[in-house]
Amino acid sequence: MGQIVNGTLIYQRGNLWRAFIPFAIGFLIFLAIALPAKKFSNFVHLSPMIIALIIGMIIRNTIGLPLFLLNSAGTYELWHNIGIIFLGSQVTFHHFAGLGGKGVLLVLFEIAMALALVTFLAKAFDLPRKLSQLMALGISVCGVASIMGSVRVIDAEEEDASYAITLILIFGATALVLYPFLGHLFGMGDRIFGFWAGMSIGNTAEAVGTGLIYSDSAVKYATIAKLCRNIFLGPVILFYAITREWESFPESKFSFSPYLLWCRVKFLGLKFPKFVIAFLIFFLLSSFGVFTESNISTLNNLYKWCFVLAFAGIGLRTDIKALIQKGFKPFFVGIGAEILISVIMLSLVYVCYG
Amino acid sequence: MDGIRDKIKVRKVKLEWMVLVLASTLAILVKFGILKFIPW
User: CB of A129 within 8 A of CB of A333?
Assistant: First the structure.
């Protein structure tokens, strides 16, 4: 049977079909969690992703998983990356037009501010560097997707990624309840609320879900703002890949000889996740009208299902004991940053669109 | 290193290539309307 180590499937020569057994088993386990999660979500009005994650975490941390099932659960990355690629089909150039120049500037400001703020707070509280980088990416750009996309770029450990993802999901779940409550309390308009949710909540599913809970009109604004942020996933990951390359070869930081440039391009090519390029290709295909409305609706269902499958896998791979061992400092840094970003973005959205 | 690899006859496939193959296959199925009959 094949084994997945650091994003690579390793198998014995001549046993190609047996190598795919973990993927088949993984798919069946994820489906066994995703189907009831989807059904249950209709009753409790909670994202099926959160329910799948919770079911996965309960299974892992109560009855536990034998090693071969744990190995199969590691294949969730496949479904998550496919989900991100298909998410590209939901974004078009029109989304940028809907936001306007002001909105794009606000999105750029939010990304830069969140990256700087989380990095600063993490340094002040002496958090591990890779964990703080993952948290900064998750909070600033697009939650779980950007954490998953950058794990290989910054060579982070799976436990760090798991911790950062759990934090983002906890913040997302809290926002789902808190944002609509605050929106109604302060009598916010649909546009203000939608842009606020889209520009300050990390994870796409929760940002869109929050808009949906508020009103049918708010969800459109939240989606536009959130998807505009998602577009910057590629450039931000590229930025981290370049920074990492500079750290790996510090002596050649300012050298531009053709050979070194070639080495840099090769290094970036190895580190840069290919699915981000696929995400951009889907964005362009969708913008140029290659997909019909029916295609886009199918892709919308497909990407959501991919995420539910992946979240079941993330839950199964989350060891709560290991998270507690890491301590609560990252949690407080994350929550502090989230509150500051939320307040600053709400004020800016009011100034620009109020 | 190559010697050891030959001995235990190990092969490697990058997960990201599998992602791209599966995503493009699914996208082709979507484009030709084959997946639209699935009750999502």
Answer: no
- β-pair partners for A9: A4, B13
By Cβ distance, the residue of A14, A78, A86 closest to B18 is: A78
Write the pLDDT tens digit of every residue in A92-135: 777 667 778 888 899 999 999 999 999 999 999 988 888 898 99
Distance in angstroms (rounded) separating the CA atoms of residues A53 and A315:
4
Establish how many alpha carbons lie within 13 A of residue A191's alpha carbon, considering only the half-sphere containing its beta carbon.
Answer: 10
State pLDDT tens for residues A290-336: 988 899 989 988 988 998 898 888 888 877 787 777 778 888 999 99
Chain centroid to CA A25: how far?
Answer: 24
Which string of DSSP letters, residue by residue, matches A51-74?
Answer: HHHHHHHHHHHHT---HHHHHHHT
Residues 6+ apart with CB under 8 A from A245: A264, A267, A268, A271
Q: Is A169 helix (H, G, I), strand (E, B) or coil?
A: helix
Inter-chain residue contact A9 with B30, CB threshold 8 Å: no
B23 interaction partners in chain A (CB closer than 8 Å): 81-82, 85-86, 275, 278
Q: Who contacts A28 (Cβ-Cβ below 8 Å, separation ≥6)?
A: none
ipTM score for this prediction: 0.81
Beta carbons within 10 angstroms of residue A155's beta carbon: 12
DSSP H/E element including A155: none
Strand order in the sheet with B10-14: A3-5, A8-12, B10-14
Here the tokens at position A276 are 């981000």
pLDDT tens string A237-290: 878 877 877 777 666 666 667 776 777 677 666 666 677 788 889 988 988 989
For A277, other C-beta atoms within 10 Å of its C-beta total: 14
- Interface check for A291 against chain B (CB to CB < 8 A): the answer is yes
User: Residue A200 in contact with residue A110, Cβ under 8 Å?
Assistant: yes
Do residue A82 and residue B26 have CB atoms under 8 angstroms apart? yes
pLDDT digits (tens, 9 = 90+) for B1-28: 555 555 567 777 777 888 899 999 999 9
A233's tokens: 């996933």
